[in-house]
């Protein structure tokens, strides 16, 4: 049933119970017909026995007339046989070889006793009745035995069964037609929805606004949510392609121009200078490309499924330690402190490492000088943790503290060789974790704080 259409599944789920119920009802109807047929024919057989008893009593033991037997057979549809035994067990009239009464049968006076047997190889239904007669020739207890073949009562049961089956079959077929067309009409909104979606172009991700039944609204809401996420994803991809094309156009053009100039260098000294310029431009372009890819990778990993319990202190301290070992050569002092009770944080460790790399690189390019100081702190509070990176550089003007997180924004175009994407990556990572990034005032230089919630569940 898993591979059937929704219409067929609904039809089978509804019609199969009806067929089972119809089968049970047919069987119950047959049993009831059997009981009804048995009761009717038994009552009729008893009436025949009483009639024969009265006729024999009136005729004082004479055999029944052929006309009476013929009338009884015509009325009942099956041959009727009888035997009458007088007082003392003497044979009075009828047939001499009646069906045997079952052993142990309790035949009471005035109460008919019915049983099934065979007579001349045919199934018969018999009744035994004891009555007291007070006639001159027949005085005492008389036993009347009457038996009849059962072909007519079996035919009646079959007729009742066939009528019941025909009636229930008609009802089931009618119900099947009603269900089929009812399901077809009931599923029409779903088919209309399917057609509406199939007619959309790949670029049409507008929410579905048409009327839909209540049962389909969660599905459509989920679909609209998917459309919205896809639209945002496409916007991000388009923005990435546009930004990459825009930002890489000038550096590549510069490298081409410098390479052409190097080809026409008048002497080796000029050639070396121009090749050095090409190398510097290539490094800057490579860094820009890496930053663009990092930004895109961060957005692509914004999935809570990648989050895990992480020892933030160990992760940040390892990143700071590696940075400090390199900066010792430049006489730069790097410190790391933990404030509060440290706890594990549910986060994406790869994204957090990327964020720390960009924060440290930003401080190195725009804030630190030879002999400078960089302080990194983890401040644990009750519901959040703050990652603080503070340098002793020139700082950032108050009116620029929010803009520094914009993509490709640089506070001083002549200062450093950055590309304006590091802090944008930091912001995206913080927001992906339900936090935020900010630049706050500092007595030393630039101070960046990244606030992350501790409960990510």
Characterization of this structure:
There is one protein chain. Helix content is 52%, strand content 18%. It contains 9 helices and 12 strands. The strands form 3 sheets. The chain has a 5-stranded antiparallel beta sheet with strand order 2-1-5-4-3. A hairpin with a 3-residue loop joins strand 9 and strand 10. The chain is rod-shaped and about 160 Å long. It starts with 5 loop residues before the first helix and ends with a strand. The mean pLDDT is 79.
User: Roughly how many Å apart are the termini?
Assistant: 39 Å
* Envelope shape: rod-shaped
Radius of gyration: 52 Å
Mean pLDDT: 79
Beta-strand fraction estimate: 15-25%
Topology pattern, helix = H, strand = E: HHEEEEEHHHHEHEEHEEHEE
State the low-pLDDT regions, or none: none
Could you say which structural class the secondary elements and strand pairing correspond to?
A: alpha+beta
Question: Total strand count, please?
Answer: 12
Summarize the amount of helix as a percent range: 40-55%
> What summary fits the major beta sheet?
5 strands, antiparallel
Strand order of the largest sheet: 2-1-5-4-3
Question: Helix count?
Answer: 9
In a few lines, what is going on in this structure?
The protein is of the alpha+beta class. The protein is built from 9 helices and 12 strands. It has helices at 6-58, 66-76, 151-186, 188-198, 217-263, 268-300, 312-327, 349-366, 422-432, and strands at residues 80-85, 91-94, 113-119, 122-134, 139-149, 308-310, 333-339, 345-347, 373-380, 384-391, 436-440, 447-453.
């Amino acid at each position: 049933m898993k591979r059937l259409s929704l219409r067929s599944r609904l039809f089978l789920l509804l019609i199969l119970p009806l067929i089972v119920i119809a089968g049970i009802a047919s069987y119950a109807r047959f049993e009831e017909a059997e009981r009804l047929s048995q009761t009717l024919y038994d009552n009729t057989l008893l009436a025949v026995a009483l009639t024969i008893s009265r006729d024999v009593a009136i005729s004082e033991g004479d055999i029944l007339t052929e006309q009476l037997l013929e009338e009884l057979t015509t009325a009942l549809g099956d041959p009727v046989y009888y035997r009458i035994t007088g007082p003392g067990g003497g044979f009075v009239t009828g047939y001499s070889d009646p069906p045997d009464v079952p052993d142990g049968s309790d035949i009471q006076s005035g109460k008919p006793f019915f049983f099934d047997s065979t007579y001349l190889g045919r199934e018969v239904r018999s009744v035994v009745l004891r009555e007291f007669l007070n006639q001159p020739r027949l005085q005492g207890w008389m036993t009347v035995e009457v038996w009849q073949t059962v072909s007519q009562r079996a035919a009646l049961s079959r007729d009742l069964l066939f009528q019941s089956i025909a009636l229930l079959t008609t009802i089931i077929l009618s119900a099947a037609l009603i269900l089929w067309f009812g399901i077809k009409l009931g599923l029409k909104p779903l088919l209309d929805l399917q057609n509406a979606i199939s007619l959309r172009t790949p670029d049409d991700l507008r929410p579905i606004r048409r009327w839909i039944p209540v049962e389909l609204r969660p599905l459509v809401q989920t679909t609209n949510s998917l459309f919205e996420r896809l639209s945002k994803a496409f916007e991000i991809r388009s923005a990435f392609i546009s930004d990459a094309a825009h930002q890489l156009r000038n550096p590549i053009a510069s490298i081409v121009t410098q390479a052409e100039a190097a080809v026409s260098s008048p002497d080796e000294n000029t050639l070396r200078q121009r090749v050095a310029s090409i190398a510097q431009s290539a490094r800057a372009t490579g860094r820009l490309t890496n930053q663009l890819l990092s930004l895109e990778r961060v957005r692509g990993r914004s999935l809570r499924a990648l989050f895990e319990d992480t020892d933030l202190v160990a992760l940040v301290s390892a990143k700071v330690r590696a940075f400090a070992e390199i900066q010792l050569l430049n006489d730069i002092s790097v410190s790391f402190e933990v404030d509060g009770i440290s706890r594990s944080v549910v986060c994406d460790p790869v994204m957090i490492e990327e964020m720390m790399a960009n924060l440290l690189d930003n401080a190195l390019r725009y804030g630190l000088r030879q002999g400078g100081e960089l302080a990194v702190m983890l401040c644990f509070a009750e519901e959040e943790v703050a990652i603080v990176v503070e340098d002793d550089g020139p700082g950032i003007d108050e009116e620029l503290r929010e803009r520094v997180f914009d993509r490709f924004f640089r506070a001083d175009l002549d200062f450093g060789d950055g590309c304006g994407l590091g802090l944008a990556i930091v912001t995206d990572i913080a927001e992906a974790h339900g936090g935020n990034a900010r630049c706050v005032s500092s007595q030393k230089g630039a101070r960046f704080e990244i606030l992350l919630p501790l409960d990510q569940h």
